[in-house]
Prior knowledge:
Oligomer: single chain
Number of helices: 9
Radius of gyration: 17 Å
Amino acid sequence: xxxxxxxxxxxxxxxxxxxxxxxxxxxxxxxxxxxxxxxxxxxxxxxxxxxxxxxxxxxxxxxxxxxxxxxxxxxxxxxxxxxxxxxxxxxxxxxxxxxxxxxxxxxxxxxxxxxxxxxxxxxxxxxxxxxxxxxxxxxxxxxxxxxxxxxxxxxxxxxxxxxxxxxxxxxxxxxxxxxxxxxxxxxxxxxxxxxxxxxxxxxxxxxxxxxxxxxxxxxxxxxxxxxxxxxxxxxxxxxxxxxxxxxx
Length: 248
């Protein structure tokens, strides 16, 4: 029998704790496939802060380091400067990266730290029961915006890729999505390019991944994928914002 699908070596063979329909597991697999293809599992160190993926050190076979909420870029900076020969990545959600960790990600990018960030944007605080996040859409209902997010009360959503792409130290910036197979494959290409940019010593790289949170959105997995496509992409357009033609 021909083998058409197998688990990447960089991803451990253990059950994951994520809710049904959550796309974190798919994103983990894409990262693991890239680590395998680039043959860098043994020299990679991942950093995860607080959030739904706080314990993804259970899932990756590479070395992993825990960080305090929002501090993954600072921790990753320290690791990379001490071990410049290692490949260092952070895995962060929108509540972590775009709220308590805003200063860390902005300054890591503006310094051009040679790290890679995988930024998962599901427009809500997933781990702590569905509060409004910095990326929550206008009129989106959350546990802390029961009548929807209102600009006059809560401000506007933060577009992280657009923000970071203005910084000279950020050399590769791209936004992708998990809502269908074609876009999942595009996401893998972007993640691979981001790691290659780091390996080539070019500077800071980030891939923003639009993801679902069926549990806190109050939707089925299928409904959540459609909601992402219909509502999140108009606010957060997909594409490369910087470094598309960068040679690595």
